[in-house]
């Protein structure tokens, strides 16, 4: 069975960036491709960044039991497909689920052995600056995401591991240590 690592944290904290750099360092890390009803951002590709689904199709897949977890976030649906976890079930593999808080809670119930990592910003203001600086979201979307972020930050105590993404290289180092520990079976 592959090792499952859940990575959660507010939108804009740098989850995608940290995971991309981690995967360059540790090639056995695979990223689960989620399904979502939100529209692709410029440059995002179906089946690579997300499985982009119509709402009806997403609902049908919930009814079919296709998701190990799913949640509504800022007005859209997101979920982890069971089929993503069934691929490449090698002991030496790590599958990263980059998901929001409600999904992380569902996985904590259904897969208690999965490592749960929360990526936190150095400050709320830094989070706002990163979301604005990324330039992918409207002012309204940024406000919505920052509102959700307050709730998410309040829940970080639920996570066995918290990494503050201040200097990017340090955050990747910390995550790599956890992943290598998980691969060696050394994380308690
Ligand atoms: P998330 O996946 O959590 O929504 P992203 O990975 O898209 O976040 O990062 C949001 C923005 O913050 C991006 O523009 C990214 O380049 C930038 N960023 C990520 N980590 C850092 C960091 N440690 N220092 C400064 N900027 C960062
Ligand atoms: P974005 O729209 O910025 O890509 O993602 C918004 C939020 O949805 C992020 O917090 C991201 O981690 C989360 N997310 C992405 N995929 C999934 C998923 O499969 N399940 C859940 N629960 N959240 C997800």
What this model shows, in words?
By secondary structure, the chain is of the alpha/beta class. The protein has seven helices and nine strands. The protein has a five-stranded parallel beta sheet with strand order 2-7-1-8-9, with helices on both faces. A four-stranded mixed beta sheet has the order 4-3-6-5. A hairpin with a 2-residue loop joins strand 5 (about 65-75) and strand 6. Helix 1 packs across helix 7 (about 170-185) and helix 5 (about 125-135) packs antiparallel against helix 6. The chain is globular and about 45 Å long. It starts with a strand and ends with a helix. It binds adenosine-5'-diphosphate (ADP) and guanosine-5'-monophosphate. The site of adenosine-5'-diphosphate has 14 residues, from helix 1, helix 5 and helix 7. Guanosine-5'-monophosphate binds near residues 78, 79 and 98.
Overall mean pLDDT:
93
Shape: globular
Which structural category do the helix and sheet elements fall into? Answer: alpha/beta
How big a fraction of the residues is strand?
15-25%
Measured as a percent range, the helix fraction is 40-55%
Global Rg: 16 Å
How many helices?
7
Query: Unreliable stretches, pLDDT < 50, 5 or more residues?
Result: none
In this entry the ligands are: adenosine-5'-diphosphate, guanosine-5'-monophosphate
Tell me the major beta sheet.
5 strands, parallel
Order of helices and strands: EHEEEHEEHEHEHHEH
C-alpha end-to-end distance: 18 Å
Number of strands: 9
* Strand order, largest beta sheet: 2-7-1-8-9
């Amino acid at each position: 069975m592959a090792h499952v690592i859940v990575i959660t944290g507010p939108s804009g904290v740098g989850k995608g960036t940290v995971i991309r750099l981690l995967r360059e360092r540790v090639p056995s890390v695979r990223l689960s491709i989620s399904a979502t009803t939100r529209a692709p951002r410029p440059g995002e590709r179906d089946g690579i960044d997300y499985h982009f689904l119509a709402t009806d199709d997403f609902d049908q897949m919930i009814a079919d039991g296709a998701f190990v977890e799913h949640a509504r976030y800022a007005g859209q649906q997101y979920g982890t497909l069971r089929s993503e976890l069934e691929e490449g079930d090698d002991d030496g593999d790590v599958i990263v689920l980059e998901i929001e808080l409600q999904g992380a809670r569902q996985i904590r119930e259904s897969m208690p052995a999965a490592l749960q990592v929360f990526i936190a910003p150095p400050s709320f203001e830094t989070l706002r600056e990163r979301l604005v600086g990324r330039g992918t979201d409207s002012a309204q979307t940024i406000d919505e995401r920052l509102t959700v972020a307050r709730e998410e930050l309040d829940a970080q105590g639920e996570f066995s591991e918290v990494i503050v993404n201040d200097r990017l290289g340090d955050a990747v180092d910390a995550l790599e240590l956890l992943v290598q520990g998980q691969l060696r079976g050394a994380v308690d």
